[in-house]
Design goal:
It is a single chain. The chain has 349 residues and is mainly α. It has twelve helices and three strands.
């Protein structure tokens, strides 16, 4: 029963009591209200009062929801197995041991893992009347979103470094990009993604949430969650933009600069592998634009809602992660040839 209803009931009953009893009832009510307010204050200070968030979804139109549902399902049934096929091909072919293929396999793994964070829940929510995610589930989703996303961004930086050494410093390539160095770089990008994500989560956990609890999106992410906090979030937003936005922008500009240097070097050379180097660099630049373009749009500005936010977030979290390794594979003749041999051995026979 609500505290106000209890108070009203007790005061009505107290009218029939003697003055002494009336005084005791009044003191009891005031003490109860004071304890209730103290408990609410302690709960707000110690943690969150919101236990779940309601997701408003991508759109309210049933026709668009059906279209998006079919689109995600097609991507999962066709492109997601393709990513696992890329990993299997690189792992099973002794001829694909170069660092480029080592990092390509890890990219496919990261993107496949990233696609499991948002898309499966979207498919379930399309079939549900009430789209609800718990506070803990929201924090977990947010953590893995930035953990894998940050790791992938750093992986693209490592791949750009690999291409720079291979094309601009070919005589030093085997020395610089030895297996031990590749493993160290891989460990560093996983650690970098973890540190980036844990900072996001730590800032969110310190915010009080006492209502409302409606997220105007189809998943939990920093911009939408921060808007629901029951306090001034200017400093937190500034830290988030610095952590996500500035890091994304610097990586993007650094990657474009590095590939500009590589392309200039390739253009001025007359080597036999010029066309292959150009094809590889072009593929990498396409992936960079697909990944960093939406991320810059989302994280490098104040957290204010724009009409295009949901559409950009949908392509950034659902569509592009599944496409990235496929684009790499379609532009790489060695991986395609190895994949054909693998399929011919295990499928045709």
């Amino acid at each position: 029963m609500d505290a106000h209803c209890i108070v009203a009931t007790l005061f009505l009953k107290s009218e029939e009591m003697e003055p002494a009893n009336y005084t005791r009832v009044t003191e009891f009510v005031l003490t109860g209200l004071s304890q209730t307010r103290e408990a609410e204050k302690m709960e707000l200070e110690n943690g969150t009062m919101v236990k779940e968030f309601i997701l408003l979804g991508l759109t309210q139109s049933r026709n668009i929801q059906l279209l998006v549902f079919v689109l995600i399902l097609i991507f999962y049934l066709i492109i997601l197995p393709g990513n696992f096929l890329i990993i299997l091909t690189i792992r099973s072919d002794p001829g694909l041991t170069a660092p480029l293929y080592f990092f390509l396999g890890n990219l496919a793994f990261l993107d496949a893992s990233y696609s499991f964070i948002v898309a499966p829940r979207m498919l379930v929510d399309f079939l549900s009347e009430k789209k609800v995610i718990s506070y803990r589930g929201c924090i977990i989703q947010l953590f893995f979103l930035h953990f894998l996303g940050g790791g992938e961004g750093l992986l693209l930086v490592v791949m750009a470094f690999d291409r720079y050494i291979a094309i601009c410093r070919p005589l030093h390539y085997s020395t610089v990009m030895n297996p031990r160095a590749c493993c160290a770089l891989l460990l560093a990008l996983w650690l970098g993604g973890f540190v980036h994500s844990i900072i996001q989560v730590a800032l969110i956990l310190h915010l009080p949430f006492c209502g409302p609890n409606q997220l105007d999106n189809f998943f939990c992410d920093v911009p939408q969650v921060i808007k629901l906090a029951c306090t001034d979030t200017f400093v937190v937003e500034l830290l988030m933009v610095f952590n996500s936005g500035l890091m994304t922008l610097l990586c993007f500009l650094g990657l474009l600069s590095s590939y500009a240097v590589i392309l200039c070097h390739v253009h001025g050379s007359a080597s036999e592998g010029k066309s292959k180097a150009l094809s590889t660099c072009t593929t990498h630049i396409i992936i960079i634009l697909l990944m960093f373009g939406p991320a810059i749009f989302i994280y490098t500005r104040p957290f204010r809602a724009l009409p295009a936010d949901k559409v950009v977030s949908f392509f950034h979290t659902v569509i592009f992660p599944l496409m990235n390794p496929v684009i790499y594979t379609l532009r790489n003749q060695e991986v395609k040839s190895s994949m054909r041999r693998l399929l011919s051995r295990h499928v045709v026979c």
